[in-house]
Specification:
This protein is an alpha+beta fold. It is built from 19 helices and 26 strands. The strands form seven sheets. It has an eight-stranded mixed sheet, with helices on one face. Strands 11-12-17-14-15 form a five-stranded mixed sheet, with helices on both faces. Strands 20-21-22-26 form a four-stranded antiparallel sheet. The longest helix has 18 residues. Bound molecules: adenosine-5'-triphosphate and magnesium ion (MG). The site of magnesium ion has 5 residues, from α2.
């Protein structure tokens, strides 16, 4: 790679800069991107203490020469672009020369690096503004260690989730890049233990890491090409669907991206093949001329803008349709209805090695009592489920698990009172954590741009947002003294309560079955601590006792 230069102001001011470091997973992302841009064939990631104590990424890429090392931490210093024209067609994952500077601003950074040409490498140590560079022995390549994240901004630490959750997010980040770069070896160690060892592999082998061996065996290759535009990858057959979109991976020119619209395009051809509420597995790469893509719209590059959007979406849909052609369409599977726009008519399982899944499909809804309780047959008797409590628990679980948000088709403006606006302003991070994308819109107004998938999905029509937000703010006001995590749980519960089916709602037998299946899927003694009990079991043994049969 050529040498690092500080970008002239003309270029720098065109860059969508901002907070790049939100959490440990952001550090993992930026460091992996740098390693890949450096041409690494192997990337090693180490995460300790949820990534707050340490994130280290080591690679065997081109490394940095002695003269370049001190520049790496400077803002807008990059070896990847030189001019405004370069911004028009980005060929690397990084281009702003911002990431390392932003990381060094909130953590202690140590870099050990050597180029292949040099005999001796360099060690850089940065604590705040103090940067030292000294000669040091180093393998060819680069290793960047980031310690004590947010040590100097303790308020930002408060917005972090539990170390386990942060670790999980780091792991997901590694996985996304491993899927986008199957030819590169990846490994991940968490708290000193190996979590992932992925030698260079085919896409199918990589996909197995993400969806499991069994499901990977049910994946179908897709491939579609027209001019500069190429769509290729793997999609799950209709035999393997999931209750969430968490096993859909998209990459654009090898840059992992999230895109609600791409997900919709992927899912469209599954209509009538996969029951509503089941989402296909997918690892999809879109490749096109970089001039068509603007990655410079979002400070974390979390969003990209495409010219030719339609062409891309159509290409994805067509690639998927072609692969699904052999699978018959069942009309009845395509008609969702409130309150479960996604009613699976038969339980489709993805083997997860969890015991509760074994029961799924053997718990059979028999009917509703007082439109409030669902009675179901189980292998050892019957179960009575409180439909509201159960749905609430499912939604709470999904909200707390975080992840996907769904953009609103048009942003909704929310006019608040001064007090509400202040309260919201002080807790925006908390709402963002739950997947509610709210942004200040002048005065006491906010603009809602996206909703967490569990809320967006349960509704067919527009969700009445203001009453929901009002209630959440009330809940917030009532619980101000709580720590962020319990507060987040409170808000998730409140939102789930509003979105859940109510006592008295008439449910079809299919809808009852979905609720039971979802409940069992979400159920584990450790993950369902919220609220009232959602069910009780009446065993055959108990019945026999009552009827004096034993
Ligand atoms: N692992 C690495 N191997 C070799 N050079 C690296 C590595 N990491 C960083 N560098 C050098 O340091 C420079 C600054 O990295 P930094 O991540 O801050 O910016 P960038 O990658 O150019 O842009 P962005 O801010 O978009 O990530 C890079 O342009 C590159 O020259
Ligand atoms: Mg970078």
């Amino acid at each position: 790679m050529s040498t690092i230069q500080v970008l002239p102001p003309k270029v720098a001011e065109r860059i969508a800069a901002g907070e790049v470091v939100e959490r440990p997973a952001s550090v993992v992302k930026e460091l992996i991107e740098n390693a890949l841009d450096a041409g690494a064939k192997a990337v090693r990631v180490e995460v300790t203490g949820g990534g707050v104590d340490l994130v280290r990424v080591s690679d065997d890429g081109c490394g940095m020469g002695r003269a370049d090392v001190p520049l790496a931490l400077k803002r807008f210093s990059t070896s990847k672009i030189r001019s405004v024209a370069d911004l028009e067609a980005i060929h690397t994952l990084g281009f702003r020369g911002e990431a390392l500077a932003a990381i060094a601003a909130v953590a202690r950074v140590a870099i050990l690096t050597r180029t292949a040409e040099e005999l001796e490498g360099s060690r850089l140590t940065a604590v705040g503004p103090e940067v030292t560079v000294e000669p040091a022995a180093s393998p060819a390549g680069c290793s960047v260690a980031v310690n004590d994240l947010f040590y100097n901004t303790p308020a930002r630490r408060k917005f972090l989730k539990s170390p386990q959750r942060e670790t999980e997010l780091c792991q997901q980040t590694v996985l996304r890049y491993a899927l986008a770069f199957p030819q590169v070896a990846f490994s991940l160690a968490v708290d000193g233990r190996e979590r992932l060892v992925a030698p260079p592999a085919s896409l199918l082998e990589r996909a197995a890491l993400a969806v499991g061996r069994e499901a990977a065996g049910e994946m179908l290759p897709i491939s579609w090409e027209a001019g500069d535009l190429r769509v290729h990858g793997l999609i799950g057959s209709p035999a393997v669907g999931r209750g969430r979109r968490d096993r859909q991976f998209f990459a654009l020119n090898h840059r992992p991206i999230r895109s609600g619209l791409l997900a919709v395009m992927l899912e469209r051809p599954y209509a009538g093949r996969l029951p509503p509420g089941r989402y296909p597995l997918a690892v999809v790469n879109v490749e096109l001329d970089p001039a068509w893509v603007d990655v410079n719209v979002h400070p974390r590059k979390a969003e990209v803008r495409f010219a030719q959007e339609r062409a891309i979406y159509q290409a994805v849909s067509q690639a998927v349709s072609a692969a699904l052609a052999p699978f018959p369409v069942q009309e009845m599977l395509g008609t969702p209805g409130w309150p479960f726009p996604e009613v699976p008519l038969a339980p489709l399982l993805v083997a997860e090695g969890r015991e509760m899944y074994d029961v799924r499909g053997r718990v059979e809804a028999l009917g509703q009592v007082h439109n409030t309780y669902i009675v179901a047959h189980t292998p050892d008797g019957l179960v009575v489920v409180d439909q509201h409590a159960a749905h609430e628990a499912i939604l709470t679980e999904r909200l707390l698990a975080g992840g996907e948000t769904v953009p609103l088709s048009s942003p909704v403006r929310l006019d608040l009172t001064i007090r509400e606006a202040e309260l919201l302003g002080a807790h925006l991070g908390l709402f963002a954590d739950l997947g509610m994308d709210l942004e200040p819109f002048g005065g006491n107004s906010y603009l809602a741009r996206a909703l967490p998938a569990p809320l967006a999905r349960e509704r067919v029509g527009p969700l009445p947002l203001s009453p929901l937000l009002e209630e959440l703010l009330e809940e917030l006001a009532a619980n101000r003294g709580l720590d962020p995590e319990p507060l987040r749980v409170k808000l998730a519960e409140k939102a789930a309560c509003r979105a859940a089916v109510k006592a008295g709602d008439l449910l079809s037998i299919e809808q009852q079955q979905v609720l039971l299946d979802d409940l069992l899927a979400a159920w584990s003694p450790s993950t369902c601590p919220h609220g009232r009990p959602a069910l009780f079991v009446l065993t055959v043994e108990e019945m026999e006792r009552r009827f004096l049969r034993r």
